[in-house]
Amino acid sequence: MLRLGLLLLLCLLIVSAVSLGQDQPNTPVVPDTCPVTKPAEKPFVPSAPHPPEPPRDEFWFGTDKLWTALPTTGTWYGLPHFTPDDPTFRQKLGFWRQGYDPRSEPQPNLTVKGKRLDSSAAPLKSDDHANGGWTADDQFIITGINFPTIGCWEITANYQNDRLTFVVWVAP
Prior knowledge:
- By secondary structure, the protein is mainly beta.
- The chain is built from 1 helix and 10 strands, in the order αββββββββββ.
- The protein has one helix spanning 2-20; strands at 58-63, 66-71, 75-77, 89-96, 110-116, 125-126, 131-135, 138-147, 151-159, 162-171.
- A hairpin with a 2-residue loop joins β7 and β8 (138-147).
- The longest helix has 19 residues, at 2-20.
- The chain starts with a helix and ends with a strand.
- Mean pLDDT is 88; it is low at 4-24.
């Protein structure tokens, strides 16, 4: 279990590294036709024991029942391909839920679906199952998604009858 926890922590660090790279001066501009999810005037702040602040240049989006961290720019760019032979663009997503315990539910039944809003495209693909992870002061669910193309994407996550939908611009 410790090995799984360390692996998931490493995945979160990689996601944070991708996020840190997203505030470069040449951040792609989101087209006006893509209604990316932006921070609310009154931002969501998770209850303790979860961190009240997300990683740099991100904001919490959701409710205590299900939330994630999204880029303040509304853009994910420079995403890697899942494998060298795979043309899809890979993103790891962390989700949180008040009371979630990865030790009792190491592979939570979280599903993630997505559709491109600005053009026709195959739906995004998500990992077969999510994984639970934890640090000394936080518990989370992590999964990976693969976008078949760049563009404007609406993503919906479902976990235990709770739904979270948001829009991001996926750029090269």
